[in-house]
Write a structure and sequence with these properties.
The protein is α/β, with parallel strands linked by helices and about 350 residues long. It has a single domain, classed as Rossmann fold, CATH 3.40.50. The protein is about 50% helix and about 15% strand. It is built from 15 helices and seven strands. The chain has a seven-stranded mixed sheet, sandwiched between helices. Helix 2 packs across helix 11. The site of S-adenosylmethionine has 20 residues, from helix 2 and helix 5. The site of S-adenosylmethionine (SAM) has 20 residues, from helix 2 and helix 5.
Length: about 350
Amino acid sequence: MDSHGYAQALVEPFGPRLPLPELVVALNRIYHRFEAQTYDASHDEIFAQLPALWERMGAVARAIAPARRWRILDFGCGTGFEAGQILRVLGAGSIASLMCHDPSPEMLARCRERLAASGANVAFSETPPQEEQFDLVLTNSLIHHLPSVAAFCRQVRTWLRGGGAWIAGHEPNRACYLNPECVALARWLQRRQRLRKAASPAMWLELVQRRLGLRPTVAERAAEAAVREGLFERRPARVAVERLVDFGVPHSEQEALAGRGISLEAVGDALGAGAELVWSESYNFMGAFFEPDPPRAVAARVDRLAAKHPECGAHVAAVWRVAPSAAGDLPPRAESLR
Ligand SMILES: C[S@@+](CC[C@H](N)C(=O)[O-])C[C@H]1O[C@@H](n2cnc3c(N)ncnc32)[C@H](O)[C@@H]1O
């Protein structure tokens, strides 16, 4: 079963009222309305880990066109993380314009606050740009929320001028879930983390509060709102909401084989001729969760795995460039690639 078949089967019992691709987009909008309130506080990994990565990716973009004054699109900008990073790395003076797009007004409001004092020429939009062209497209932790990666890649090609680049940060890496050694280590670390959590009174308190409905998760709040707003006939299960919102995140080898997870090769095919992968890095060999300072024995095991399978970390980031002569040279429709 492919990833669309898998997701369709998951939501069918709850009477979905929209076709799957529209449901993914609409549910993401509802989910991120709630997530916006806690996003920055609950994503340590983004703020601890990714600035150094964005420093490297920004340097790659600068090397592509050192003298450029950049016209930039930040797609799925959220609270403004990657916009802040690119302003830091390139400097406001070398940015001609920055458009921040997010379909969630709540996310966009926080992005506006974060960038208020940036001194850059920034615009904010709940609708994606149609006709405009850019030198640089930024995404971070975004494409796994989309119903079709291939359709998005076509869109990226229409936005990018020849010689422009797409910096795609922090996506779930399909290769990790297809590597039995990586899967085994991540499972072992997950069990270890569960045992550690079981020893924490705060965790038990949280569990009781959740069971009593005193502390609903973002997915549970989104499930209720989704019924109120006519997306489903019945309240969807938490896991169905999570799988739809994180539409491209694999949780097992089976899901990766069904097409969940980002594959650089598939993205390259979908971007088409004239687009070139100029830089990529895979990281997080402990699996999808973040532990900044693991014990030495664990760190040594993780380092050995990273040395053996450097392309199979749980996350991947990449910089793509469109050849100067190739703007508007669009790839053929590749819907089967999703
Ligand atoms: C995990 S957050 C990442 C936010 C930000 N890029 C960051 O890294 O901090 C995902 C963001 O993607 C946005 N998003 C979800 N579906 C989208 C879509 N179809 N088009 C554009 N943005 C979308 C959400 O509203 C949310 O702000």
